[in-house]
C-alpha cells in the first residue's frame, strides 16, 4: 500500500516536471517559477528515497518472508475450511446404533441386570452405493459375550425409487422386525411374544432384495421383494421344535424362499401392509445334532400390519404366521404352525416428555410351553428423543410352571445414537 | 414341477421389477446432486421438513437435527432412504432440511 502511494507521488512529480519544462512556464512570474523549482527539488528527493525503498524490498530475505506469510495464510484457510471439504467428500461414513441396560424382575424368580449394544455402520459412496451393517453384542447369563451379525448389506441405488440390496438383511415380512425392534424405537422394554428368536416372525434373510416406492399423488405404495436361502428346521423328539429364520449362509434343501411386503399409505399417517413368503425348508438339526438328507417340505409365511398416528396417539397392530408342511418321510413328519399378533396403543403427554403404552399379544405355537398370551403396560420418560427411560409390566399367561407364565416388570434405559 | 414353479416365479418377478427400474435409471441424476449440501431450490427446505415430519415419526421419535453433523446426516439419510422407502428427491429434501437446521 505504501509503495502504491509513493508511485502515485512519483507520477504527480513527473507531471509537474513536464509542466515546468513546457514553453508556457516561460511566461510565468519569476517568484512563482522559483517556488515551483523548490517543489520539484523536494519531489526529486522523495523519488530518490522511494527508489531506495524499492531496492530494499527486492532483497531475497524479504521475499522469503513474504512467501512464508503466504504459506501460513494458505494453511490457516485450509484448516478453517476442513469441515466443509469433509462434508462435500464423495465418501462419507457414519457410526451409529443403539444400546440398552435393563433390570428384569420375574415373578417367583431371580431378578437380574442385563445389557447389550448394537453398533451400526454406514458407508456411503456418492449416493450410489451404501454399505450398512449392524452387530448385536450382548452379555449371556454365564457371563460370556455373544456377538451376532444382525445384517450386512450392499445397497445399490438403481433409480430414484428402487434399491437393490444384497447380503444378510432384516426380513421385510411385517413391520416390527425390520423397523421397530431397536430398543430406542420399541415403546416397551421387550419384543411382543412371537416376534423374537424362534417365534412366528422371520428375523432375517440371506439373499437379494429389491426395495422401492411407487408414489401416487398424496398416496404411495412401498414394496420389498426378496429371494433368499430361507430358514432351517430344528427337530426334537420326532417333532418340529422351531423354525430358525435368521439368515443362514447355507441352503441344505437347495430351494430358495421368495417373499416380500407391499404397504399402501393412502395418507402419510396411515400404513397398511401385507407380507408373505413361500419356499421349501428341511430339518437340519435333531435333538441338538446336525443331520443331512432330511427331505424338504413346503414353507409359507403370511403377515398383515397397520400403523396409524393422530396427534400424540400412536396405534399399531400386526399379525404374522409361519407354517411348515408335513412330510411323512422326515425325521419330524408332522406339520407345524406358529402365529402371533399384537395390538399396541401409545400416547405422549406433558409436552411429549412422557409416554404411556399398552400392548396385547397372543402367540400360538405347536408346543404348549411356548404359547403365551401377554398384556404389557409401560410408562416412558424421554430424556431426549432418542434416549428413553422405560418402565414396563408384563402380565403373562402360558403353560403353568413355565417361564412364559411368569409375570415380569422391567426397568430399561435405551439410547439410540 | 412345484420346484420349478417356486424357482421361476420369484426370479421372473425380481427380473421384471429390476428391468422396469433400470428403464428409469436416467432419473438418478437427481440423487447424485444430493452429494453437495448447497440448497438449489428454496422449496427443498419446506418439502424436506414435511417429509421429515410425515415419515420419520411413523416409526420413531423425531431426532434433533443438531444431533448430527452435515456429513453424518448424509450417511444416515441414505440408510433411511432404504429403510423408509424414500424416493431420491424426498431423501435429498430431508437432507437439505436437516443440514440447514443443525
| Rg over alpha carbons of chain B | 17 Å
Give average pLDDT of chain B, whole number: 77
- Residue share in helix of chain A: 10-25%
Shape, principal axes of CA atoms of chain B: globular
> Which stretches of chain B are low in confidence, meaning pLDDT under 50 for 5 or more residues running?
24-37
Strand order of the largest sheet of chain A: 1-2-3-4-5-6-7-10-11-14-15-16-17-18-19-20
Helix/strand structural class of chain A: alpha+beta
The residue fraction in helices of chain B comes out at 55-70%
Our Rg estimate of chain A from Cα atoms comes to 38 Å
> Treating each run of at least 4 consecutive H or I residues as one helix, how many helices of chain A?
4
The total strand number of chain A stands at 20
Q: Into which percentage range does the β-strand content of chain B fall?
A: under 5%
Topology order of chain B in helix (H) and strand (E) letters: HHHHH
Major sheet description of chain B: none
Strand share of the residues of chain A?
A: over 45%
Question: Which chain pair has the greatest contact?
Answer: A-B, 63 and 52 residues
Mean pLDDT of chain A: 89
Class derived from helix and strand content of chain B: mainly alpha
Order of helices and strands of chain A: HHHEEEEEHEEEEEEEEEEEEEEE
Number of beta-strand segments of chain B: 0
Q: What spatial form of chain A do the alpha-carbon principal axes imply?
A: elongated
Provide a short characterization of the protein structure.
The complex is a heterodimer of chains A (417) and B (102). Chain A has 417 residues and is an alpha+beta fold.
Task: Indicate the topology.
The complex is a heterodimer of chains A (417) and B (102).
Chain A: H1 2-21, H2 30-57, H3 60-87, E1 91-106, E2 112-125, E3 129-139, E4 145-157, E5 162-170, H4 176-180, E6 204-216, E7 219-228, E8 232-236, E9 239-244, E10 257-267, E11 270-281, E12 283-286, E13 289-290, E14 297-310, E15 313-324, E16 336-349, E17 354-364, E18 372-384, E19 387-398, E20 408-416
Chain B: H1 2-23, H2 29-32, H3 43-55, H4 70-83, H5 88-101
Helix pairs in contact in B: 3-5, 4-5
Amino acid at each position: 500500500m505504501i509503495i502504491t502511494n509513493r508511485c502515485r507521488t512519483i507520477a504527480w512529480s513527473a507531471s509537474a516536471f513536464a509542466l515546468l519544462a513546457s514553453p508556457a512556464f516561460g511566461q510565468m512570474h519569476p517568484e512563482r517559477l522559483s517556488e515551483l523549482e523548490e517543489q520539484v527539488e523536494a519531489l526529486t528527493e522523495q523519488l530518490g528515497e522511494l527508489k531506495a525503498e524499492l531496492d530494499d524490498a527486492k532483497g531475497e530475505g524479504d521475499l522469503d518472508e513474504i512467501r512464508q506469510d503466504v504459506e501460513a495464510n494458505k494453511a490457516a484457510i485450509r484448516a478453517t475450511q476442513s469441515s466443509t471439504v469433509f462434508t462435500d467428500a464423495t465418501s462419507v461414513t457414519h457410526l451409529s446404533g443403539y444400546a440398552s441396560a435393563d433390570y428384569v424382575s420375574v415373578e417367583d424368580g431371580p431378578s437380574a441386570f442385563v445389557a447389550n449394544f448394537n453398533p451400526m455402520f454406514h458407508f456411503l459412496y456418492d449416493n450410489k452405493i451404501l454399505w450398512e451393517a449392524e452387530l448385536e453384542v450382548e452379555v449371556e447369563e454365564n457371563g460370556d459375550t455373544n456377538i451376532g451379525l444382525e445384517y450386512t448389506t450392499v445397497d445399490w441405488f438403481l433409480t430414484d425409487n428402487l434399491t437393490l440390496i444384497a447380503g444378510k438383511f432384516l426380513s421385510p415380512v411385517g413391520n416390527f422386525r425390520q423397523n421397530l425392534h431397536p430398543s430406542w424405537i420399541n415403546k416397551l422394554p421387550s419384543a411382543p411374544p412371537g416376534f423374537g428368536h424362534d417365534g412366528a416372525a422371520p428375523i432375517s434373510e440371506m439373499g437379494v432384495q429389491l426395495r422401492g416406492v411407487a408414489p401416487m399423488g398424496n398416496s404411495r405404495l412401498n414394496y420389498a421383494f426378496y429371494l433368499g436361502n430361507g430358514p432351517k428346521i430344528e427337530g426334537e423328539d420326532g417333532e418340529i421344535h422351531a423354525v430358525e429364520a435368521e439368515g443362514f449362509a447355507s441352503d441344505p434343501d437347495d430351494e430358495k424362499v421368495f417373499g416380500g411386503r407391499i404397504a399402501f399409505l393412502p395418507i402419510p399417517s396411515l400404513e397398511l401392509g401385507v407380507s408373505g413368503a413361500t419356499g421349501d425348508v428341511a430339518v437340519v438339526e435333531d435333538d441338538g445334532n446336525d443331520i443331512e438328507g432330511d427331505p424338504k417340505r413346503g414353507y409359507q409365511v403370511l403377515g398383515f400390519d397397520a400403523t396409524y398416528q393422530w396427534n400424540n396417539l400412536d396405534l399399531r397392530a400386526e399379525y404374522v404366521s409361519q407354517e411348515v408342511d408335513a412330510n411323512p418321510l422326515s425325521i419330524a413328519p408332522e406339520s407345524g404352525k406358529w402365529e402371533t399378533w399384537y395390538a399396541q396403543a401409545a400416547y405422549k403427554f406433558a409436552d411429549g416428555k412422557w409416554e404411556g403404552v399398552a400392548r396385547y399379544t397372543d402367540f400360538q405355537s405347536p408346543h404348549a410351553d411356548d404359547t403365551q398370551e401377554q398384556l404389557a403396560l409401560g410408562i416412558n420418560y424421554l430424556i431426549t428423543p432418542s434416549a428413553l427411560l422405560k418402565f414396563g409390566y408384563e402380565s403373562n399367561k402360558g403353560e403353568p410352571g413355565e417361564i412364559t407364565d411368569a409375570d415380569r416388570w422391567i426397568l430399561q434405559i435405551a439410547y439410540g445414537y | 414341477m412345484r420346484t420349478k414353479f417356486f424357482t421361476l416365479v420369484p426370479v421372473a418377478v425380481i427380473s421384471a421389477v429390476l428391468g422396469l427400474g433400470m428403464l428409469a435409471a436416467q432419473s438418478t441424476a437427481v440423487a447424485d446432486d444430493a452429494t453437495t449440501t448447497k440448497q438449489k431450490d428454496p422449496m427443498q427446505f419446506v418439502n424436506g421438513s414435511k417429509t421429515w415430519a410425515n415419515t420419520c415419526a411413523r416409526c420413531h421419535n423425531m431426532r434433533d437435527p443438531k444431533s448430527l453433523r452435515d456429513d453424518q446426516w448424509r450417511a444416515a439419510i441414505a440408510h433411511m432412504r432404504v429403510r423408509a422407502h424414500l424416493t431420491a428427491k424426498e431423501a435429498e429434501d430431508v437432507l437439505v432440511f436437516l443440514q440447514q437446521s443443525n
